[in-house]
Amino acid sequence: MNVDLFCVQPYMRPDDYLTREAFYHKIDRYFQAASQQRTPGQPALIVFPEDLATFLLLEGHQDLLSQAKTLEEAFTVLGKEKAGKLLWTMVQYGTTRMKRAFFAEGAARVWHIWHGTMVRLAHDYHMTVVAGSALLPESRWTYDTNSFMPRSARIFNLSFTAGPDGHVLYHTKKVNLVPTQEDVLELTGGPLTEAAQVVPLPGTAIAMGTAICYDAFCQPHTAQEPRFVNVLEALDKKGARVVAQPSANPWWWDEPWPFDPSGSSIRLRRQQWDEEGSKRALKSCTNVEVLINPQLLLEFLDVHFDGESRILARTGTEVETLVAAEATRGAAGDMVLHSQWDFNR
Question: With contact defined as beta carbons under 8 Å apart, do 93 and 150 qualify?
């Protein structure tokens, strides 16, 4: 069976997050571009990058852009504006951590915009969508609703997938936290039992799953991560045949990889991504045939994301690139990659 595969590499600007209408229309553009390339009547899977919805915390805060020059300053400005709400959130959920309270306080608004946008567009364009991810607490309610109430102040890197009928098929939490990035944000790693779940791609019997960015790597970045686990390998053992790897890379793609030991040969981030990441991990799989890896492009204050989005396919132990982004940063990299794969081959 042939499946249309779409990998969205969006160039996101702060203005795209300031109102729910701006976010909706930006995401709709990518669905439109995909719909123009798809084969009528054929199942379609579209995948968005990691952290796509995290910056919806900016919604309604136009003034923030002129008051802060770093993310830490932005936290400080918002903290002053929301002092009462944050204090109440800390008391309500029993935390002394300001950053956790910040994400928990804004969770319902982020979810309402993100979930509402993705399920509506999945339904309107009749596509299965892996909606990227956002930094959110667990919800007390089902994820197949537009309402959200935090269960606690523990914050996860959370992704969800919706089918062409507009209903959420499954959600997953990132297991491995990236050192010097997600650990300093005081995130909590999700359980492997939840991350290693597979469901049929709607309209097919093809099992699919999600490994959020670092979860699809076959080895850790450092020697101080004893709990690191290869989630892609776990999905493969569960029988997944197509895996989404939503990513957001905070290091410059064409500059040296900062975690290489001192004195070792200089590797660029792009080289390290191939040598330790999903491309190498895919070679060892026995069930996973296709991996869709979108990268987020964004520059906001001192935050930066770039990288090469691509769709990979495995035949035996050989891995080929079906399609890859022609640009890896800025507005020139704003694109939707398209390929097809015959799962009966």
Answer: yes
